[in-house]
Amino acid sequence: MSSEQVPTLEPAPHGAAGSRIADVLRKSILAGEYEPGARIRQEELADRHGASRLPVREALRALEGEGLVTVVANTGAWVSRLSLAECEEMYQIRERIEPLLLRFNVPLLSDESIDKLEALAMQMELSADIEGFITLDRQFHLSMYGVAQTNVLGDTVLRLWNRTHHYRRAFMHVFSRGNDQSVHYEHHLLVSAIRRRDLDEAERVLAGHIRRTRLELARHPEVFSETH
Hints:
It is a single chain. The protein is mainly α. The protein has two domains: 64 residues, Arc Repressor Mutant, subunit A, CATH 1.10.10.10; 142 residues, GntR ligand-binding domain-like (Four Helix Bundle (Hemerythrin (Met), subunit A)), CATH 1.20.120. 65% of the residues lie in helices and 4% in strands. The chain contains ten helices and three strands, in the order αβααββααααααα. It has a three-stranded antiparallel beta sheet with strand order 1-3-2. Keywords: DNA-binding, Transcription, Transcription regulation.
């Protein structure tokens, strides 16, 4: 896999229909079309895609493995949601393991890939659209992690990103109300450290970047009550 590609890291559901349904539903969830805690009705998905229940169940199992969906046996499926305490814990985990994943990848990133990271950082800084920023931000971060082959770490980081994705969107709505440029400053610092192949500095900047989002979210508990 080239470093500019966003890693998928997760197994696809069996069968073309299950893969297609999972792809559409994944994009809808990540785009915010489903709120955390929203019920996902299997019969509606089956009708919409002209499929039977089997590929729908396969798609839901795949998305459950990615952390996007919660399936309760004999009850139904919902878009995964988090409490403030759960989100806090996941961000604490991310602060510790995501810099390690970055350390594995930095020596393998090509100069061309680093140039693309820098271009993404500039695009984010110039973007006035929150949804556009969220898409670019996900591409920026996950592109840094797509080179090194890992057995557990890459999958774990991707699941944590998926579980906290909606709350990063909420954070950006809070962030955009002020004129705080720190997120962009940190992105540029991160690219600079990666370009110098300074592993310790890259880890330090990334950990602080994740920590700042965690602390900001903790200051806005209404983000979590609104999504339950």
